[in-house]
């Protein structure tokens, strides 16, 4: 079958306003394109009711990946989709430039050549400004480049839908949304010429875009950071947890007083030789190892990960009106739960320092492996979670109550449920809207950000809090001695 290009114009724009000019322009372009005989690919005009569910349902049905109980099958299809352009033209005035929205679900991005083509067509041929990540007045300064990159990382880390184009990217269809902004002298004719030039560029392709990057961080419309430059930073954060896990595993197999043994042995008088092959004077004794009791540490880590199903299920299935109150209640539950666990553990079990070491080792090992794997799929999410979870590596049982509860307060400040609130502020949305999008993304777009937050990050935080509250001054002394 002939390959196809899709032009999307939803009735409702990304900002939930009437996309009147966008729909009118799409219909006009359909009539205009029909007059030309140069098209080597089919052109599909898609006008869904909104920018989220309608496009997703159509794309799923086009690829036969839909739920037949809720979405009807398509009676007519074309060939493989080569690309898609969505029009988000809700303003009723002339505009100054075009905002290119390219973020996909789960941090997926379109091929960079598609963005470069639109930038060259709009800026080179039409004399039109182009912007990304809402930076409409980018002056190519260090601050603006950093702000653009951080905005892109935040949106990529959240992984939620940014526009109608986001539904196409999981099916390896390069797509973007074009959104006019500002007040200028450009009108619908200029917008149509940009779309026409982009469609002609896609029409000339003999195969899918693949020569350029799929993993990148844009600092400006024509400046980017490639994966080979930024990926090591996330890998180093993941390695931080893994290295500490290995260190604690080795230490857990050594006797508690073994650290001082080589120092004492160096000043002891050597024992008389019993054979001709005796050790040289001053040689430290062989390092002994103790058997590791893994039952309790494995139970604690497994129990914390099993408890993570609670926030994942509740915040993904409760009605939208109860989402903010559910998050607030879970914040309280999350803050109280470590105190309950730390109170019950000494009552039910006999804890040793080895248990604290093994519990932390196993927890950090799971966290490190998960983030290392995630970094290759969604760098921004792995990097942000790794940065916020980095205190878990260095926190050990404290010697006095003041230090203990100071550390507890610090960990509560970076707890996953608490971090949701400043994140929504930085993303420019309310808590209710953010939770609703996250729930919708989990159920419709299969966004795995909630899994990373509640099933990977939160259990590691819970284990660290439990270790801090359960540890005694003797455990703190041993931890400090071993580090020395």
TrEMBL record:
Stretches that traverse the bilayer: 227-250, 294-315, 327-345, 365-390, 402-422, 442-464
InterPro entries: Gaa1
Keyword presence, Transmembrane: yes
A Pfam family per the record: Gaa1
Record-level GO BP terms: attachment of GPI anchor to protein
GO cellular component terms listed in the entry, alphabetical order: GPI-anchor transamidase complex
UniProt keyword Membrane, yes or no: yes
Entry keywords, A to Z: Membrane, Transmembrane, Transmembrane helix
Superkingdom field: Eukaryota
Full protein name: Uncharacterized protein
Species this chain originates from: Photinus pyralis
